[in-house]
Amino acid sequence: MTPTILQLMLFAMLPYVALFTFFLGTIMRYRMAPFTYSSLSSQFLENQQHFWGVVAFHYGIIMVLLGHLVGLLIPRYVLLWNSVPLRLYVLEISAMAFALMTLVGLLGTMERRAHFSRTRRVTSFADWLIELLLLAQVIAGIYMALFHPWGTSWFAASASPYLWSLFKFNPDVAYMTTVPFVIKLHMTNGWLIILLFPFTRLVHMLVAPFP
């Protein structure tokens, strides 16, 4: 199927714009405003309310991202693992569990951000926007798991080759033209999150592991 102009913009042009903005934006922000490379957290003021949201969100999203990374780096081994039904079920159920954990944690952090004045004062429009995009991303991922199952297999078979084609500067949009709409939405939304990342509080993820 020949890709449309819109598909070329979303899957061949947007990824490079997003990645260029991500790298340039994070570097410039670190050089010009290094103090903003923090979560500006007020959790010491609302620790009990904050705990259940932030812990679930961080552990959930880290495992979800690691799962995507594994599917990208070693897709053949993922497909080999999934060739045994029991192992496929274990992987799919685990992915769903971490996705639900991410959803619960994200809703908790958004509720805290909306109701605690100290947190609300340090929250920008970009922070709210990227949290809404993250919410849409998680919901779309859960929807795919429920109505387009075996996502770990189709990610390794279709999304991984598409992403590698981008890294090779030879984008093969054909991989994205035949997938269901929700998968296209999930992919496009992911690029938008990467695009906005440098302008939000999420940049603290890049330096949090380092003293």
Task: Looking at this protein, list some descriptive labels.
75% helix; mainly alpha; 211 residues; single chain
User: Helices and strands, in N-to-C order?
Assistant: HHHHHHHHH
User: Which sheet architecture does the biggest sheet show?
Assistant: none
In terms of DSSP E residues, the strand content is under 5%
- Global geometry: globular
Q: Give me the secondary-structure category.
A: mainly alpha
Any overview of this molecule?
- The protein is mostly helical.
- Helix content is 75%, strand content 0%.
- It is built from 9 helices and no strands.
- The protein has helices at residues 5-32, 47-73, 75-82, 85-115, 117-121, 125-147, 151-167, 174-177, 181-196.
- Helix 2 crosses helix 3, helix 2 (47-73) packs antiparallel against helix 4 and helix 4 (85-115) packs antiparallel against helix 6 (125-147).
